[in-house]
Amino acid sequence: EKGYPMKKIIIAGTGFSGVWAALSACRAIALANQQAEFDVTVVSPEPNLVIRPRLYEARLDDMAPDVGALLKAAGARHLPGRVITINAPARTVVIELMNGAREMFDYDRFVLATGSQLFRPQIPGLEEYAFDVDQLASARELDIHLEELSRKPDSAARNTVLVAGGGLTGIEAAMEMPIRLRSAWGPTTKFDVVLVDTADRPGGALGEAAQPFISEALNYAGVAVRTGARVNAVTADSATLSSGERIATNTVVWTAGMRASPLAAQIPGERDELGRIVGDAYLRAPSANGIFVTGDTVRARTDDLGHSAVMSCQHALSLGRVAGHNAAAELIGLPLHAYSQPKYVTCIDLGAWGALYTEGWDRKVRFTRQEAKKIKQEINRVWIYPPTADREAVFAVANPDYVIVP
Q: Helices 313-332 and 16-31: crossing angle, nearest 10°?
C-alpha cells in the first residue's frame, strides 16, 4: 500500500538517550531522503523528558519539558504507553497503552533507552518510610513531606534529615537540603542534616584531589557525616545504622545505588553488575539482532583505555545520538558510527558553598566554588535541556559526533 511505513524503528523511553536517539535516527533518515519509508515511534507514558539530574534541587519547576512537538518536528511520533515485553527472536514488543490495553508491535530496529532506577535493597522499613529524588513523582513526595513537617511540633526527629549514600546524588541531595529546609521552614529554623556513607569518605569516586573541597563544603553547610556505616532499618521516626547508632528522624532520603531498567533483562546477552547489556562498538546488543541499547541500559567503552560510560546524562546524550543514528543507518545502508567519548568531566553541586568541576578520569580539579557553580547551572539549566522544535536546528546538533560538555 502506498505510503505504508516499510521500515519501523521503535525507541523505548523519552529520557536523554531516548529523545536524542529519535532525533538522530530522524536526521539520518532525512539525510537519505527516505522519510516516507520509515516509521520512527517513541514509546513512553508521556512525551516528557524528566531532567533527572536536577531532582535534588529545592525548586521542582520545569523539570519535565514536553518533547512532543520536538519529536514531531524531527519526524518521529510519540506513542503513550510502556514497553513491557521484548521478544528479540521475533522482533516484536508488547506495549501497554495508557488505557490499559496491550498491543504487539513488530520492528526492524529496536532501541532500548528506558534508563535506570534507584536500587532499594531489602532493608526493614525502607520501602515504607524512605524518600528519594530518583524520579519526579518521588522528588515531589519529598517536597510535600518537608512542607508538611514545617507544620508539625518541634522535635529531634522532625528537625533531622538523613541522606543515605555518599555518591554524587547523595552529596548533592545533602548539600541542597539546608537550602530546601530554609525555603520550606523559614530562614531561622534549626535543623540537622546527616549524610551516611558505607565508604570511609563521601565522594571517594571523585578522587583524592576533590576530597579537601568536599570536606570543606560539607562543613560549610553544617552537614554531619557518618562514614563506614549503612542504614540497617528505617521507621517513621528513626533510622538505625550498622554501627548500632539510632538517629531520630522523620526523613530518610535514599540515594544508594542504581540499576539498569528491568527491560534490559529481557534482551539476551552479557550484562554487568548494574544490569546493563554489554554493547558492541556501535551500541548493538551482540546477542540480539536488530536491538540497540543506549543510555543507562548499556555498558559501552568510551575510549581505548578501558573506561566505560557511567550512568549520567553526559554519556546518555552521546549514547542516544549514536544508537539512534546506527539503528537508522543499518536500514538505510549508511556507514555505522562507533561510539567514542574520551572527554569526561564531573561537576557536582555543593549547595551554598558552590560546586566542584573536574576533568578526566583522573578527576583533575579545574574549578571550584562559584566559578564551578556557574558551570553547573549552565549544565543543569541549558545544556541538558531539549532544543526547540526547529527541524534544521535540531538536526544540526543531532549528529552522532556532537558533544555538549565544555
A: 30
Q: pTM of the full predicted structure? A: 0.95
Q: Do the Cβ atoms of 287 and 259 come closer than 8 Å? A: no
Cell 536517539 belongs to which residue?
Answer: 21
Tell me the backbone φ, ψ of residue 101, rounded to 5 degrees: -70, 150
**Chain position carrying cell 529545592:** 58
179: left (phi over 0), alpha (psi -120 to 50) or beta: alpha
In 3D, which of 303, 330, 328 has the Cα closest to residue 315?
Answer: 303
In the predicted model, what is the mean pLDDT of residues 226-238? 97
Q: Which of 335, 344, 281, 334 is nearest to 312 (CA)?
A: 344
DSSP 381: I
* Cβ(174)–Cβ(191) below 8 Å: no
DSSP string, 18-61: HHHHHHHHHHHHHHTT-GGGEEEEEEESSSB---GGGTTSS--T
The 8 Å CB, 24+ separation contacts for 103-107 are 105/8, 105/10, 105/41, 106/8, 107/8, 107/9, 107/10, 107/290
Which amino acid would we find at residue 371?
E
Q: Which three cell numbers stand for residue 86?
A: 521484548
**107-163 pLDDT, tens per residue?**
999 999 999 999 999 999 999 999 999 999 999 999 999 999 999 999 999 999 999
Beta-bridge partner residues of 94: 85, 104
Mean per-residue pLDDT, 1-22: 86
Q: Mind giving me the DSSP string for 98-159?
A: TTS-EEEEE-SEEEE---EEE-----TTHHHH-B-SSSHHHHHHHHHHHHHHTTSPP-TTTT
